[in-house]
Amino acid sequence: MLHTKDVSYEHSSTFQLKDVNLSIKQGEIVSLVGPNGSGKSTLLRLISRLIKPETGEVILDGHMIENRKSKEIAKKLAMLPQMQEHQSDLTVRELIEFGRYPHQKSYSKLSKEDEQIIQWAIEVTNLNKYEYRMLHSLSGGERQRAWIALAIAQRPKILLLDEPTTFLDIAHQLDVMELVQQLNQQFGMTVLMVLHDINQAARYSDRMVVMKNGTVHYDGIPQCVLCREMFQSVFQIDASIHKENGNTFFTPLTLEKGVSI
């Protein structure tokens, strides 16, 4: 459904994304994890065409993404960036209405179908009582749900999320992650997201892709990716791996002296 083929990008003299090959299948939830500066958000921006790779290709539904029109891409792929403070003077509903832009003809009004999809996005994200509130008056978790509602109002096949739980308390983090899982399971949206919380990534993802220094080091199901060798080689820590109720999670430990990384 979505592929990167030998994608490379030089961000600066000290950082390069090098020959990244990644395949995302329809219906998957895939999390990108790794240390700060490993290239996770850069890869997401390359896939969403916010920046252009220096070499390699991003392929969406069998077609190179750089050869397609922006509106055509937006009907299939929605990107939720890390920071979204630039539209705080809108109401929740006004923000979500922007999600229908890719489906509209120039200067046309919202159609009945547009209105129905906007209402669907409001209901799915549980924003009914907030739809006429100003964004700046909402809590961080409520604002994040509003931005997710904007993204899903595009009715994309693929949802790209860059650190969707950043700056949220644990209750709102879980609220957002449960919503992401619902969008995947109930509405069939494929999800590729950057997460810092590795335990959350393991709990909510079908696959985890671990990056370091601009390359992919591990790619697989959480039960296989979460291992002491991965934490030692990628994060320079030791870890205790646990399994409970079908979930795999870890506890960080100080790296033992003499362990090679």
Summarize, please:
Helix content is 32%, strand content 28%.
Please, could you describe this protein's structure?
Its main location: membrane. It is a peripheral membrane protein. It is found in: Cell membrane. The protein has 261 residues and is an alpha/beta fold. Helix content is 32%, strand content 28%. It has helices at 40-47, 70-74, 92-97, 112-124, 140-153, 170-187, 198-204, 222-225, 228-235, and strands at 2-12, 15-24, 29-33, 55-60, 63-64, 77-80, 158-162, 190-194, 207-212, 215-220, 238-244, 247-253. The protein has a 6-stranded mixed beta sheet, sandwiched between helices. Helix 5 packs parallel to helix 6 (170-187). The chain is globular and about 55 Å long. The two termini are 35 Å apart. The model has no long low-confidence stretch (mean pLDDT 90).
Protein topology:
Layout: E1 2-12, E2 15-24, E3 29-33, H1 40-47, E4 55-60, E5 63-64, H2 70-74, E6 77-80, H3 92-97, H4 112-124, H5 140-153, E7 158-162, H6 170-187, E8 190-194, H7 198-204, E9 207-212, E10 215-220, H8 222-225, H9 228-235, E11 238-244, E12 247-253
Parallel strand pairs: 3-8, 3-9, 6-7, 7-8
Antiparallel strand pairs: 1-2, 1-4, 4-5, 9-10, 11-12
